[in-house]
Amino acid sequence: MVDTRWETKTARTLVLDVPEWPGHLPGQHVDIRLTAEDGYSAQRSYSIASAWPSDGGGTVELTVQRLEDGEVSPYLTDVVEKGDQLELRGPVGGWFVWREKQPAPVLLVAGGSGVVPLMAMIRARGLARGRQPFRLIYSVRTPEDACYADELRRRVRDDPGLDVHFVYTRKAPDGWPAPPKRIDVAVLNTHGWPPDFQPDCFVCGPTSFVETAADILVALGHDAKKIRTERFGGA
Amino acid sequence: MELDGNALAGDLREVFAGDLTAAVFTCAGCGHAGAVATLRVFQPAPGLVGRCPSCEDVVLRLVRTPDRVFLCLSGATRLELSLDGE
Amino acid sequence: MGIISRGFGGRRRESSPDLPPGQYLTHDFPVLSAGPTPRIPLDRWQFSIITETGEKHTWNWDEFTALPADEFTVDIHCVTKWSKLGTTWKGVSLDTLMADVESAADYAMAHSFGGYTTNVPVEDLLDGKAWVAYEFDGEPLHPEHGGPARLLIPHLYFWKSAKWVNGLRMMPEDEPGFWEAAGYHMYGDPWSEQRYHGD
Ligand SMILES: Cc1cc2nc3c(=O)[nH]c(=O)nc-3n(C[C@H](O)[C@H](O)[C@H](O)COP(=O)(O)OP(=O)(O)OC[C@H]3O[C@@H](n4cnc5c(N)ncnc54)[C@H](O)[C@@H]3O)c2cc1C
Ligand SMILES: [Zn+2]
């Protein structure tokens, strides 16, 4: 690990320098395996947040959300330090990916840390100067829980055709027009693409969030085949 | 806890040369066809179990030992892989 | 084995000399699931034993819970490496359930609601070694842990103790069940660390 930065109070980005990294597509993930002194080991998947090739050279970035009672995530957010080695396998996954040559508009729907692989797609589009219109609907508990907030603000200004809409489930910023609420039909209808545009939809986050959002998209008339989902787990 | 077939990518990659999550399975139980990534996967268990999103039947079982991977595809009548890697 | 992760402890665990090799002690009761948890109404519950000749013995919930039951305390060992000591259960011994069953089969396949199966030699089911348990710690067995009733064969790895069990099919020859077909050991003795096929 060559660098690290906090995205929120509980989410940290790890910048990794991986020898012989073959490059990756946005949406792919790695499997990290931790091994204790006595040989006990635990493995978890983490999405790649960065695009390839990365601005800073050959690095790969992950963003990990700490779960208080978790086994692996608190180690990655609070224990591992610059200079430490991590054992990883990847990049893996070839279905939940976006490719520059896909011409359709894109709708990204993120719940919590589910934003990570979608951010990689936004970054890859930026890098390739993609023209496909992108919309991100990003559900967070409070404004303080939003990862990449500054970068998203900058990209909405600088990357033509990118829109971002936040959904706050616990606490909205002062002056926000709506009270805190979960993602619903109105949000996806207003801030997504009409089904007629046949957008490629990517939905990622906790399992229950993904099911809710994907069900709404289907109910709104999106073709189930155009909706790609990735479940991170949880209740 | 429930995940989906995306979480199988790493282990399947050890058995197959390419990515398998984009491959299309056909369920032996109900005939539903879909990407391996859309299977319903439950954890923790002695292995990884991928169930058909349409009928919940078990489509694949994957068991990892320290030095081997076992893959049992008895719930799929067919697996279709694209050869251009996409 | 891979690199040691500096400062990584992992989930709290203890080793203990009383445990089978490779096992760690746990004090909670981890829930393993390979599918959605079936919820079986008691009026639809039944348990059957089908012999190799096709003869079928069936108990509904009232008949089953009217059978003489044992209360017993045993250690359990899960193949995912946790062991839990001194767990108390109530259940009907397989000796009781098999008393009127005429069978010369050496093996049995346990079947569960939800489709799970696991194979066991008949001699491992008899002589007070196995039960169909319906209470844990003095309470009705929770669906997450296999309720209304689960098989309990504590001397084998816990995957043999089929959750949501609804029957036994007697078999002259050994056949693999759900995990056995996918690479786990046919017998599964924790003391000889028979985890996987070929161990
Ligand atoms: C393909 C894939 C990509 C992923 N990418 C990322 C990523 O980019 N960033 C990231 O932070 N995480 C990601 N995850 C989730 C990650 O793999 C771990 O599940 C997560 O970090 C929790 O691990 P843990 O060991 O800390 O918690 P555990 O010890 O496994 O679990 C602790 C408790 O938290 C609950 N829990 C487990 N996972 C979640 C969850 N996702 N949300 C809420 N509660 C949960 C468990 O049920 C348990 O009660 C991804 C998962 C998958 C399958
Ligand atoms: Zn099916």
TrEMBL record, chain B:
Superkingdom of origin organism: Bacteria
InterPro entries from the UniProt entry: DUF6510 (IPR045423)
Matches recorded under Pfam families: DUF6510
Name of the featured protein: Uncharacterized protein
From TrEMBL, chain C:
Residues in coiled coil: none
InterPro entries: OxRdtase_Mopterin-bd_dom (IPR000572), OxRdtase_Mopterin-bd_sf (IPR036374)
Annotated protein name in UniProt: Sulfite oxidase-like oxidoreductase
Region (Disordered): 1-23
Stretches assigned to the Oxidoreductase molybdopterin-binding domain: 35-179
Top-level lineage group: Bacteria
Lineage: Bacteria, Bacillati, Actinomycetota, Actinomycetes, Micromonosporales
